Amino acid sequence: MNGSLSVKDRIKLSRPRSAVGVLAGWLLIGVVSLYVALLILAPIMSLVVGAFEEGLGGVLRALNQPDVLAAFWRTIWISVLVVAVHAVFGTIVAWVFVRDRFRGKGLINGLVDIPFAVSPVVVGYMLLLLFGRNGLFAPVLSALNIRVAFALPGMILATLFVTLPFMIRELVPVLENFGTLQEQAAATLGASGWLTFWKVTFPALRHGFIYGLTLTFARSLGEFGAVLVIGGGIQGKTETATLYIYRALEERQYISAYSVALLLGLFSLLLVMGTDLLKKRN
Amino acid sequence: MTALTNQPQKPEATAGLPMRPSLPWGTWGVRTVALTYLTVLLIIPILVILQDGLREGLGGLWHQVTLPIAWHALKLTLWTSALMTLVNTIMGGLTAYVLVRYSFPWKMLLNSLVDLPLAIPTLVTGLMMVVLLGPQEAVGSWLKENLGLSIIFAPPGIILALLFITFPFVVRAVQPVLLNLERAQEDAAATLGAGGWTIFRRITLPPLVLPLASGALLSFARAIGEFGAIVIVAGNIPLYSQTAAVYVLGEVESENRLGASAVSIVMIAIALSLVLFVDWLQSRSRRSG
Question: Tell me: the pLDDT tens digits for A127-164?
């Protein structure tokens, strides 16, 4: 647009900064900074202060309870499983969306956003309608003696539903940009389908793949509503880290609740920030 | 990354060549796996709740939705979400503007704070709000005694929690568009004698309307279903501070299936139509350039 103008010309042309303009600019910066400080920073700081009310010892004591450790392991276990399933099937779905053509693809593409729009409570409830005591699949499940509701399988399904879009939405644009030329070259040179996928397509997707996985993992760690409804939050059985926080609050064990919340928040924060750093480096 | 994978290909370059599946088991196998996965995980649960909520017809659904407590919960959810969306659109737009157009020492810090809410579990968000503003905490009790304001266990707490959770939506929708905007037009308008406000209203604002609307609608859709933060901050008093998601939980626990399904369907219908509308808006703006 103004390729022929030098930087100096641009500066001369740009609107002169009057004293009023400068003042208005600082006022705007001040208002926005204050808003972010009060809305985002103040609550975070207050949680840190709340958790450390009895010092570091209090936090460590709270985190070292058997219930807390078990809840964290359950959360991590569920999240790892969810990430593994989405890694495989999310890639396949993304591939189909980009490369395959069939009728109704546009509609199905829109459906992938459903989990963004459904309340976590409703997700858990939908699974209860399928797998609960009077659910659609109840006869089959009781015949096979499988428990899904109020057990880990149901909680894994709920977390799978909630995190479905992340992997697909990260991979689709990467796959679209990559094109098929290199795969065709590999095939021309005699590479098999698998070899082409592992040596050509997958390396190109690698970063999108890692972002998708971390986002899925972080979201799984923090899931609450859906696992509460389908899992029931049974102490020692289906209690994840978020469900522990909820129970600790009801039992007025504030230091425990704050400490677990702090660790959980810190953990998912590091995951997401690490991904952001990775993204910026590329 | 190898040199092989570094150049993105333009679609035209491959248009003339035959499509070749890059995964084994052929296209049909892959397609079947993908569609089965989506059907089992997404479509069956949605169909089941639709069938359950409509088992006594639309009239039955309507009756459940208009029961006083359910109706109040839905209205509360909608008005708190709407008020949050209004504030979030203005403050999110201003934040994006400040981040793009000004430089100041703590700009990097401000920019990374914007993403924080995406990384924090919403239950933890709710907890933070209670620790800061709860009636037994320093700030909360001060507000209560001196200004007569109760925030936690009341509707204002819901709005605050929602503002925290959806803060990135508007900022991150507006920021890239603003970054790509040519300042030459604003400069030209200034040269021609237009005042600051006129320039903002006539030149800067129009291209930002679409991203502002997308961010606002997504915030609203996200707010309709929010549970984790609200269940902690709202106090969940029926006919006062109980939102739709918390109402559904109560009905599930008391085994009122029809009521739970009916309110769930209304929530899904509102949020899903908004999300699909935003999808459509964005794909249309991409196509028109």
Answer: 999 999 889 999 999 899 999 999 999 999 999 999 99
| pLDDT tens for each residue of A26-70 | 999 999 999 999 999 999 999 999 999 999 999 999 999 999 999
In a domain, B109, yes or no: yes
Residue A191 to residue A186: CA distance in whole angstroms: 6
* Residue B77 and residue B85 in contact, taking contact as beta carbons nearer than 8 Å: no
The interface residues of chain B toward chain A in range 207-266, judged by CB-CB distance below 8 A, are: 221-222, 224-228, 231-232, 244-246, 248-249, 252, 257, 260-261, 264
Q: Do the domain assignments include residue B143? A: yes
Q: Which CATH number does the domain housing residue B75 bear?
A: 1.10.3720.10
Is residue B28 assigned to a domain?
Answer: no
Domain residue ranges in chain A? 16-55, 65-281
Rg (C-alpha) for chain B, rounded Å, is 24
Structure tokens at B8: 């993105």
Is B44 in Cβ contact with A130 (below 8 Å)? Answer: yes
Number of domains in chain B: 1
Indicate which of B128, B143, B264, B281 best probes the interface with A, i.e. most A CBs within 10 Å of its own CB. Answer: B128
Complex confidence, ipTM: 0.89
Does the domain at residues A65-281 carry the CATH identifier 3.30.160.70? no
Query: What range defines the domain where residue B76 resides?
Result: 58-287
Check if the beta carbon of residue A272 is closer than 8 Å to that of residue A264: no
Question: Is pLDDT above 60 for B99?
Answer: yes
pLDDT digits (tens, 9 = 90+) for A174-206: 988 887 888 888 888 888 778 888 888 888 888
Which are the contacts of B93, defined by CB distance < 8 A and separation ≥ 6? B170, B174, B208, B212
* Shortest distance, CA B24 to any CA of chain A (angstroms): 5
The answer to whether residue B47 sits within a structural domain is no
In the predicted model, is pLDDT for residue B11 greater than 60? Answer: no
Which residues of chain B neighbour A126 with C-beta distances below 8 Å?
A: 45-46, 48-49, 264
Contact B164, B126 (CB under 8 A): no
